[in-house]
Give the backbone structure.
Amino acid sequence: MQKHTPDQIIPKLRATEVDLATGMTIGQVCQKSTISENTFYRWRQQYGGMKADDAKRLKKLEVENERLKRLIAQLALDKQMLQEVAQKKC
């Protein structure tokens, strides 16, 4: 299984849209682009209408969001431990 970058996905989506406009079926377009139909629909939902720089920015924001979620989870655990220690001292 190959992992495509947004830089690779956007041009493939544009090429598939051109092929669809010429009358090719989705199956033919996907076969030509060497992707599955499910992948095509997922990419079109996620990246449809985006430019390459928008897709890069989206990916960076998703990574940052995950990092922040992990940080919040760690802080919540630290807070809980401190509260338990404080309760034992009282």
